[in-house]
Design brief:
Blueprint: H1 5-17, H2 21-24, E1 28-36, E2 44-47, H3 48-57, E3 64-75, E4 81-92, E5 98-110, E6 113-121, H4 123-130, H5 133-140
Parallel strand pairs: 1-6
Antiparallel strand pairs: 1-2, 3-4, 4-5, 5-6
């Protein structure tokens, strides 16, 4: 029996909170599409499981630790779709800076795999915590 959309989201958010970056792409369908409309300086789209894998593996060894809290998952009239609201408590292990980052994700899960997601993360705050705020500001100018 396939996992429900909520169960897949729970595995995703747990994997991120436990920094299991190498495992996360396996939650996505081979042809999954990830839209990040609030990515800065430009919206981003990730196509396919292997691009998703590369995206997550870029975090391996990085300084950011993310821990999800205040997670609220909204079931919808479509059993394939859930909307999740949550915060990440983010800590930069190199600088010891900490902050909270707001997030909303809309996931479509089919046959136990994420086929599409729209991720609304506070990328500006993440850039600031990563030490990339100046680079981002220059790109926006």
């Amino acid at each position: 029996m396939s996992l429900s959309a909520r169960e897949v989201f729970d595995r995703l958010i747990t994997g991120i909170s436990e920094s299991r970056w190498q495992d996360l792409a396996d939650l996505y369908a081979e042809d999954a599409v990830v839209d990040q409309p609030f990515m800065a300086p430009e919206p981003a789209r990730i196509h396919g499981r292997e691009q998703v894998r590369a995206h997550f593996l870029a975090a391996v060894g990085g300084p950011l630790e993310l821990r999800a809290r205040n997670v609220v998952v909204h079931e919808t009239g479509d059993p394939e779709v859930v909307v999740a609201e949550f915060d990440y408590d983010v800590r930069n292990t190199a600088t010891r800076r900490e902050s909270t980052v707001a997030n909303v994700q809309v996931l479509r899960v089919r046959d136990g795999l994420i086929v599409a997601t729209r991720d609304y993360h506070d990328h500006l705050r993440l850039a600031a915590l990563s030490g990339h705020a100046a680079t981002l500001a220059a790109a926006l100018d």
